Amino acid sequence: MPNFSLPASSERYSRREILRAGLTGFSLLGLADILRARAATAAPQGEKTAIILVWLRGGASHLETFDTKPEAPLEYRGPFGTIDTNVPGIRVGELLPRLAQCADRYTLLRSVAHTGGGHPSGSLQVLGGDPDAQDKLHPVFPDWMTVVSHLRRNPGRALPNYIAVNPVDNYDNFQIAGPGYLGATYEPFKVLGDPSAPQFAIPNIGLKPEELPGLERRMTLQSGFDRLRRGLDLSGTMDAVDGFRKQALGLLTSPQAQQAFDLTQEDDRLRDRYGRNAWGQQCLLARRLVEAGVDVVATEFDGPLCGRVQNWDDHAVNQHIFEVYPYRMPTFDQAVSALIEDVYQRGLDRRVLVVVTGEFGRTPRISHVASSGGGVGSRDAGVVQPGRDHWPRANTMLFAGGGIRTGQVIGATDPRGEDPVERRVGPGDFLATVYRHLQIDYRNVSIPNLAGRPIPIVSQGDAIPELAGAV
């Protein structure tokens, strides 16, 4: 066994610092091991496409947004009108005036349907293609975001290839997205907190100059530990670790990573255009990240901006749907329209696809139930109020950028918004469309599950031709 000794200057370090350095080093080694596991094969070269997912947790009402039914009976249509967009023949809900003015830059898919009637099952079907109509506590199939993280892994990049800004992960105690049988290695890099808050910062991204000497001392000590480990290693594993440790350290020291997360570098007028709130700044951060080279950014719209129950699950028992929509939609309208316009203005529209959706739509027939409690968008407890329930039989998705032909509507639902009557598509078609944009061969790519059995990333469905891009 070779001798292990600290550098000649080690007498300057206290016992506590040596212990801390050792623990820090092994922690970095653990991260390096994770990165090595992600790099079993190299990422395909030359791929530059990316996706931003805006997830509406709980399920937005298609009838109040992008599939209005002004001629439906009163018990279906609700009180809001429709407005013209800048594309002749396309109309949207009156609560979306900003999005109405950029309809030439997105496409509406109005005929999405599936069988997952609960939040968990609906989310797992849309995000991972799980065919099961029953809710489950944890996903079996990996969501498409982690599949992309797996297939595009590259230990040499400065930024993770999948970042979740306010993650799409849980609904109550159910996990609605995740790596499934891929394992925790492919969890996203998670950005928590409100990006609009003055004190917002990403932990462990970019060290201050005065912190670098301390990191250098710890890594010098770690090199000593590595010499000891290398002496015990007969497989050559330690030699391979070095490259992955460099990537882990890159997150700490990379100016590119630090700048990508720094919203203060944006012009104040642009930040105002997105909205100085959580949703607006989440979208702005997502744009910065894909521009910096991140493949997938998922961001969830929930929290206080949604109203009392802090999501889009607008049962009458939860919220007064026709009072909560005027509260939340101006923020939604501002943030999403700003994101779409910014993607185009910065020349990202050929390679970056923006997708806005939740797990399903809402019941076309309005229900009336006593409220469970007062608050923003909800009457006092016991007061009967209107709402809409879960409706997996019809949903509208918005697609912008991605080199697709925009300013169009794909599919249609019946006059009450209950079922698709034209161009019905399912979760598999959606997933195939996503993978096609990311230049992943969804027809032939499989990933082994925990038993080693190859599972196709799309088991049923084809990419939607009308959403084909030419990147």
Q: How would the blueprint of this fold be written?
A:
Elements: H1 15-38, E1 50-56, H2 74-77, E2 82-84, E3 91-93, H3 97-100, E4 106-112, H4 119-128, H5 144-151, E5 162-165, E6 170-171, E7 174-175, E8 189-191, H6 212-232, H7 237-253, H8 255-260, H9 268-274, H10 278-291, E9 296-300, H11 321-345, E10 352-358, E11 361-362, E12 367-370, E13 384-387, E14 390-391, E15 395-401, E16 408-410, E17 412-413, E18 420-422, H12 427-437, E19 446-448, E20 454-456
Parallel strand pairs: 1-9, 1-10, 4-16, 5-8, 5-9
Antiparallel strand pairs: 2-3, 4-15, 6-7, 10-15, 11-14, 12-13, 17-18, 19-20
Helix pairs in contact: 1-6, 1-7, 4-12, 6-7, 10-11
What does this structure look like?
The protein has about 475 residues and is of the alpha/beta class. It has two domains: about 10-40 and about 205-255, no CATH class; about 45-205 and about 265-465, Alkaline Phosphatase, subunit A, CATH 3.40.720. Helix content is about 30%, strand content about 15%. It has helices spanning about 15-40, 75, 95-100, 120-130, 145-150, 210-230, 235-255, 255-260, 270-275, 280-290, 320-345, 425-435, and strands at about 50-55, 80-85, 90-95, 105-110, 160-165, 170, 175, 190, 295-300, 350-360, 360, 365-370, 385, 390, 395-400, 410, 410-415, 420, 445-450, 455. The strands form seven sheets. The chain has an eight-stranded mixed beta sheet with strand order 8-5-9-1-10-15-4-16, sandwiched between helices. A two-stranded antiparallel sheet has the order 2-3. Strands 6-7 form a two-stranded antiparallel ribbon. Strand 19 (about 445-450) and strand 20 form a beta hairpin. The protein is globular and about 60 Å long. The model is unreliable at about 1-45 and about 230-245 (pLDDT under 50).
